[in-house]
Specification:
By secondary structure, the chain is of the alpha/beta class. 27% of the residues lie in helices and 15% in strands. The longest helix is centred in the N-terminal third of the chain and has 11 residues.
């Protein structure tokens, strides 16, 4: 199975991309850190057609509040219509690292906009929060952040581990904040 990963700036996207064990390629649509915020929608679609993937995986990046609701230009983030066109090339999956962040923040607006707009075949939040805005919606899932396991790291029984509980990422708010605190 060949995947095309649509990646933004390095970070979670790199970890998720590296955890895919099968054939893969990527298209970097945004690299604000290095000054590249051009709109690359046409380039992305051309690359996807040529790559002929079995699945297209979009890993989100943090947008500004006005980018969430569509009132400000995307600054390098693919447009909704581009995501819908990707669905004609291969099934698409949106991975959101912070879908369970509490309150009516920008993620909630973006998640509903993408879902209601038919931008993806499947949408996944990987922060483990079950009570997220798209719970019980068709094609929407909750998972945990994939992480490539180091080849030389021994897996110890829980009783032998020095850290009984660990947390990866920001506390955010809502359910995640309550769980950690």
């Amino acid at each position: 199975m060949k995947a095309l990963f649509l990646l933004g700036r390095p970070g979670h996207a790199t970890v998720i991309y590296d955890s895919w064990p099968w054939d893969k390629t990527f298209f970097r649509f945004e690299d604000e850190v290095n000054g590249d915020t051009r709109q690359k929608d046409d380039e992305l679609l051309e690359f996807a057609r040529e790559a002929q993937p079995d699945v297209i995986v979009y890993i989100s990046v943090g947008l500004t509040p006005r980018q969430f609701d569509g009132s400000e230009p995307h600054r390098g983030i693919p447009h909704d219509e581009t995501f819908r066109k990707c669905r004609d090339i291969a099934p698409t999956v949106f991975i959101c690292c912070d879908g369970g962040d509490g309150g009516n923040n920008g993620w909630y607006k973006l998640l509903h906009r993408y879902h209601d707009g038919g931008c993806f075949d499947s949408m996944v939040t990987i922060d483990g929060v079950l009570d997220w805005p798209l719970k019980d919606k068709k094609g929407c899932w909750v998972g945990l952040n994939p992480w490539p396991w180091p080849k030389d790291l021994e897996i110890k029984p829980l009783a032998d581990r020095s850290v009984p509980f660990a947390f990866h990422g920001a506390i955010g708010g809502g359910n995640r904040e309550a769980l950690v605190n």
